[in-house]
């Protein structure tokens, strides 16, 4: 069944969009990531204009993150105080990101900008993930051959974060730091959420662990907590300012994503974690390479026109 997307001004096959959402949901459930950084490029590959893909992906992420956040909430693994600071920073960042997004949209360069940012960002993240995955696999082989397993490293705090003024206690996170650090982190993720259509979990989680030094038990739940509110604000900004949210597209993606995530979780339990990380790294690099190839092909129009 074909559906017409009025915002994107194109017809799409509903089954294909649901299947695409299912693939991203499957990968999300398998690799434990939000999936927004894969949804937007895949929509672009399908032919959805990048600005529409970004805004609709953010809408899907809001709905998809609710169930996960509720599950962690019931387990008492959400630091509401830390989450509130991250949300405050995220809202500020989303406002700044929307100003940038709108400016680029008026110049007719938002599509190429989104593609370039994704190529650079996914290329860098993919290479880091690939190095970590290859190192983990090499370590496992050495241990299997009789080498001694290295001692577990304790959490270490970044000196400049500890030195920030106005320190307060975040009990569930096990921290005594200034709220300025998570506020700044939230702002950075908020900007990326608006421009890239990502939830930011695959940035937020490592930053909370290695920069803020949070307790691992509270990281994922708190990250999902802030994703819900920041992506909701992002959706509102896109809908009222840039008018690039296509709710039909977002709903189709959400239907496929919810179903696909269940299969992904089951599949992940049968595979070795190191091999999963290697597969995800290769997938991220493949998406970056595809976007880079698209940037080298001469477009039909050098500018994208939007009704402002």
From TrEMBL:
Keyword Membrane: yes
Record field: transmembrane: 12-38, 44-73, 80-100, 112-130, 175-203, 209-233, 245-265, 277-297
GO CC annotation terms, alphabetical: plasma membrane
InterPro entries referenced in this protein's UniProt entry, alphabetically: TM_pro_TauE-like, TSUP/Inactive_protease-like
Primary localization: membrane
Compartments it resides in: Cell membrane; Membrane
Record keywords: Cell membrane, Membrane, Transmembrane, Transmembrane helix
Membrane topology per record: Multi-pass membrane protein
Family, per entry: Belongs to the 4-toluene sulfonate uptake permease (TSUP) (TC 2.A.102) family.
Protein known as: Probable membrane transporter protein
Lineage summary: Bacteria, Pseudomonadati, Pseudomonadota, Alphaproteobacteria, Sphingomonadales
